[in-house]
Design brief:
The chain is mainly alpha-helical. It folds into 2 domains: about 160 residues, no CATH class; about 110 residues, no CATH class. It is built from 11 helices and 2 strands; from the N terminus they run ααββααααααααα. A two-stranded antiparallel sheet has the order 1-2. Helix 5 packs antiparallel against helix 6, helix 8 packs antiparallel against helix 9 and helix 8 packs across helix 10. The longest helix is centred in the middle third of the chain and has 73 residues. The radius of gyration is 47 Å and the shape is rod-shaped. The chain starts with 10 loop residues before the first helix and ends with a helix.
């Protein structure tokens, strides 16, 4: 790349150019201020000295500088007025103070937040504004002789530049604060979801363990029972939907549930699997009559959970008891949420 290609002017160089231009405009003002001060001192000294009678009679003021005496021209002493009202000058200076205060505040707020606002430079340059304010204060000290319009405009321009930088930093800080709020909210959501999943898993495991314990006790007590017990066992081993429902009805007594709960259970598992012990949801992986997710959960009720409806039903009833308290409780949840 050629080395003599002009580079893009930076914001600092632009401000320096503007500052130099304002300083050039101030030079005539400073010269006039010096001369005016000298004139005023000389005029005071002359006024204090006794004047001849003929001089007192003259109406045109005069200034004595050494041995040279010259009357002030009418263009200086007559018709001179403040170019910018004093009230506007004061309001401009007040806005300058507010701009500086706001710039310091946003810098302090960023430091306190300890957030990444996307830039290392979190300060606002106010040197130009300070110089412009000083110039305006100097010029406005002699409002009858000096034009305050340029100095006022310079302060207003510097205030606008400071406010622009302050606004940009404030926008970065607000964005960083919002991002941090969203991050904390997401972390809280994940923690709550993990806690809920852990609680559900624990409840299901406890329910399965309780059901397995009840099934074991029931099996031991029925080993020497009459032929009617054998008939019940054969019905429990049936694989049709009707046989599976009969098995479920026979198990309800273990939980103290009646026919009203059986009706809710029929509706619930009709919706889930149509009482098909081989029902499999390819999308979620749920399996069996109760649609356990995953199906291997039912292994806690028996190793034949894939093929025996009775094993699936035993696990399912234990899950319902531990999670919802009753089949009607599970059915109501399923109707409201689409799952149980």
């Amino acid at each position: 790349m050629p080395t003599d290609t002009p580079s893009t002017p930076t914001r600092r160089s632009i401000r320096t150019t503007r500052t130099d231009a304002r300083r050039l405009r101030r030079r005539p003002v400073l010269v006039l201020t010096t001369l005016t001060t000298a004139f005023a001192i000389a005029a005071s000294a002359t006024a204090m000295a006794p004047a001849p009678a003929t001089a007192r009679a003259e109406s045109t003021p005069a200034i004595a500088l050494a041995s040279f005496t010259k009357a002030l021209p009418d263009s200086i002493t007559a018709g001179v007025a403040t170019s910018v009202p004093a009230s506007k000058i004061q309001s401009t200076l007040d806005r300058a103070d507010d701009a500086v205060a706001a710039s310091k505040k946003v810098t302090a707020d960023i430091a306190t937040s300890k957030l990444d606002v996307g830039t290392d430079d979190t300060t606002v340059e106010t040197d130009d504004l300070a110089q412009a304010v000083s110039d305006l204060e100097n010029v406005s000290a002699l409002p009858l002789l000096l034009d305050t319009r340029d100095a006022t405009a310079a302060v207003e321009e510097a205030v606008a530049e400071v406010n622009e930088q302050t606004g940009a930093l404030q926008g970065r800080l607000d964005a960083a604060i919002q991002k941090e709020k969203e991050r904390l909210a997401e972390e809280k959501r994940k923690a709550e979801a993990a806690a809920k999943a852990a609680a559900e898993k624990k409840a299901a495991e406890e329910a399965a363990a309780a059901e397995a314990s009840r099934s074991s006790s029931s099996g031991s007590s029925s080993s020497g029972s009459s032929s009617s017990a054998g008939t019940t066992k054969r019905a429990a081993s049936g694989t049709s939907a009707g046989a599976a429902q009969a098995t479920a009805r026979s198990m309800l007594g273990n939980y103290g549930w009646g026919d009203d709960q059986f009706s809710c259970l029929v509706s619930l598992w009709n919706k889930e699997s149509s009482w098909n012990y081989q029902a499999y949801n390819s999308s979620s992986g749920a399996y069996g009559i109760p649609q356990a997710l995953p199906g291997s959960k039912m292994g806690s009720a028996g190793s034949d959970w894939k093929t025996n409806p009775a094993t699936q039903i035993a696990w399912g009833l234990g899950y319902i008891d531990g999670r919802y308290g009753s089949p009607c409780g599970a059915w109501g949840h399923s109707q409201s949420n689409g799952w149980y």
